[in-house]
Amino acid sequence: MVHSPGSGPGGCAHRAARGVTRRSLLRGAAAGAGAVAVPALLTACGSGPGGGVTLGSNASDAVPKRAYADAFAAYEKKSKKDVKVNTVNHENINRYLQGTPDDVFTWFAGYRMQYFARKGLLADISDLWRGFDGFSDAVKKQSTGEDGKQYFVPYYYYPWAVFHRKSVFRTRGYEIPKNFDQYRALARQMQKDGLTPFALGDKEGWPAMGTFDYLDMRANGYDFHIALMRGEKSWTSPQVRQVFDLWRGLLPYHQKGANGRTWQEAAQSLQQKKTGMAVLGLPHPGQQFTVQNRADLDFFPFPEIDPAFGQEAVEAPVDGFLLAKKARNRAGAEDLLRFLATPQAELIYLKSDPNNVAVNSGAGTGSYDALQKKAVRLVSGARQISQFMDRDTRPDFASTVLIQAIQQFIGDPDDIDGLVNGIERQKKQIFAAD
Amino acid sequence: MNRTTGTRPATPPKTVTPRPARRRGPRRHTHRDLAVLCVLLGLPILLDLALVWGPTLASVALSFTTWDGVGDIHWAGLNNYADLFADYPQFWPAVRNNLLWLAALGLLATPFGLLLAVLIDRGVRFSRLYQSTLYMPVVLSLAVVGFIAQLILSRDQGALNALLGRQDHPVDWLGDPDLNIWMILLAACWRHTGYVMILYLAGLKSVDPELKEAAAIDGANERQAFFRVVLPALRPVNVIVGVITVIEALRAFDIVYAVNKGRNGLELLSVLVTDNIIGEASRIGFGSAIAVVLLLVSLGFIITYLVQELRGEQRR
């Protein structure tokens, strides 16, 4: 899936390493890149054809894969140029980009993109951006590296919110909660009615991150949340403890055994009316609801906790494309990116994957269903847009510390002190490593 | 032996002619010998250096650095190890799980495999059926065993909770960190038992039946005959099984990775190495430190094994 961190063979690491110190260190190792490279050496490396553009896509699920294929086919028809798609697992992105990467590849906006831009692995596409039209300033900011140059072509996004079934709310007479007290009261009522209030599956490690993000942004504001993600605030601060405290108060209303359940199973329980609500991104319940049931799916923005921050921040991860610095066919790649930045290209994609929303404001919403239209309203009314925990912070911090910490919290919510102390100690090591 | 032929009738017939004594002094190798030696000995040594020793030493060296795979390398001294032992919450559970894994395979699956082999070797009814059924999981990769385990053990949709009639109060076989490692060990033992069984079956077939008969004549009962005569005769197989068990336990990875990426109670050293090095994280220095710990644990077993083998060699 889109976020899931982890690992898999996706990189090619047989290129000679750069940097004198490293080379001298590894000279003794005849294998070149050492132990690290050996597994990667064994994986197949995609090599592009001469004229066309190669594109590394991490969309292996059927729906997005077909949707991407439609968009690229449209480009091939229009430009008479080839796009060769290699479906790769991007978990190994570091070595992928240092090896022989595809010219263009799918990736995520925000800090997780900036991290690789700072490492010098991405090509600056500021020139292309001057010709782009229809992207808001907020989106441009998410596509911009720390050096002020643009690296990212945004394609589609999907907001996170609290999903539920209209019919359940209608027949039981539930009201949409505006603030946290109403939210808790609704959960209590659902439990009384024999319904599990919140669906939760965190086996993959990332789905529960969305709940943390919203609790933190509502309780402490967007600026605090982003600073925390960037390692500038302490995880042992009272603000973070408060977030875990609020969450602990909600956990008894969640499905039990969340660490053993996939997000698909959680979304299915919502679809089967066994659970009442779920904090997820639009594609997640979207993919698990049948076409007939889809009209019954609805969402509301995460409720307000501190009136000072209201509901102004919305979590809406943006997916898009990057140009590798090592691209072999840069001109072709830029031409493809120029096409992908157009509203038409986005709409072709969305036709087959209606669980997302186009980033370009020029994309007509005429073909959107009610859910997509609501998503557009939610995001366009937002004062701040966050990307998602594992996109707003360093990839090594998210995948080796936060996933485990949140799973630990779900399993044992009472040891908040031990939890935040452990996170903070590891954070210091990781952020000091640069 | 030297055949006497008719062409040399004068020599007195001898049954054994001593081979002409070798010339003393350094041996002479022809160029051809040298070339053959280089190819047959040099190439493997080169490959060994390049593919085993090089990466190993590189890992050890990298474990004293902080390197993210892109920038320059900075020396970090023993910091990685200090952080690992003190501040990495997954480390000690991973060590514990690796040892559990070793204990389960060595103390449960291996003896059980031997027992099954003995039973089948004695020719119980349908032994061929048992043999193939028990061997079946061995042809599956552990990752596939992991997927099968999920189908059975999943909390909401798994077969086991349905069979137990616990849909209302399901047991979280894979999500509960106190429980999931045992379930996974069970699945791993399922596969390992078949593996061990087939090795012992092959070994038992090669034990000379006369040994057992002799033991019986000497008045040994079946138990004594097995433990005092058959099992010692199986020594080469025992060694192979022991080595395989240790290797399987230390390299365990795919099954937990297939289940939940080796988190939340299923940590293993190999998973931590992967999480830190192969994943997007690229904490190569830190991950190498974990790999070195795994190397040291493995070396402990390798050295013990070699010492035992060499001692045994001397005794014989």
From TrEMBL, chain A:
Domain of life: Bacteria
Gene3D superfamilies: Periplasmic binding protein-like II (3.40.190.10)
Alphabetized InterPro entries for the sequence: Bact_solute-bd_prot1, SBP, TAT_signal
TM ranges: none
Classification via Pfam families: SBP_bac_1 (PF01547)
Protein name: Bacterial extracellular solute-binding protein
Organism whose genome encodes this protein: Streptomyces rimosus subsp. rimosus
